[in-house]
Amino acid sequence: MKFRLAILALCFTQPLLAQQQAYFDAAQAYLKLMIEKGDATYTRVGGYKVIGTPYLYGANRLGSMYSSDDSVTNIHLSYNTYNQELGFNPVNSSINLVKDPGTVKYFIIQGDPAMYLPTDLKFVYGSEFGSEEKRYFQEVYKDQQYSLYKTYTSELRTPETSYVQADLRQFQIRVDYYYFDEKNKTLKKFKTTSRQILKEFSKIKDLSGQINENDLVVKKEFELTRLFMELNK
User: Fold this and answer.
1) Helix (H) and strand (E) counts for the chain?
2) Using one digit for the tens of pLDDT, what is the confidence trace for 80-89?
3) Cα dist. 216→39, 192, 213 in Å?
4) What's phi and psi for 192, nearest 5 deg?
């Protein structure tokens, strides 16, 4: 089962967890460490100079993409979480192309042990669920009844250390969770507090004796996956 990102978050953020005892998504941790290490370059967004990167785990990740017309494998993908565009170019090529949101049904970023990505990451566009949301959803856990997905959205925030550069911003990733009812074909966003989870799924199954409060705080995605396994029993 797909426990990958909870484990990744612990690999990336062990020092952080010791201080704040809270889950930090692996993609968020990657961006945070990138900025803190000073590896970030500036990106122009409107009138702002933005540090960090809008690309999930950086640009040019090896993967594949699939549309209604064709499929392309063994290419470099750059998933822009700020505008939901998908950049791509063939391996060993300097040609950079961009797919507008929705022109790709789904794409896969290949696992990369060097990047602490032990398994592939699959992203499905909202229209494939019948949703009007113009964004890609990462498949976290898929089953026959209820499946777990999440989205990444880059936002512009003022750096905490910026006191003199009024036009300086940095990318910050927001993560939202959704579940898909495979039978009724409905996609719904939900909050990941124990109270909201119990309320959201009360008509499906009583999870009051199943939720581990500590794991939900420290290992959120691990715990959510386990709970969805319970929902599907």
Assistant:
1) 5, 12
2) 999 999 999 9
3) 31, 8, 5
4) -105, 25
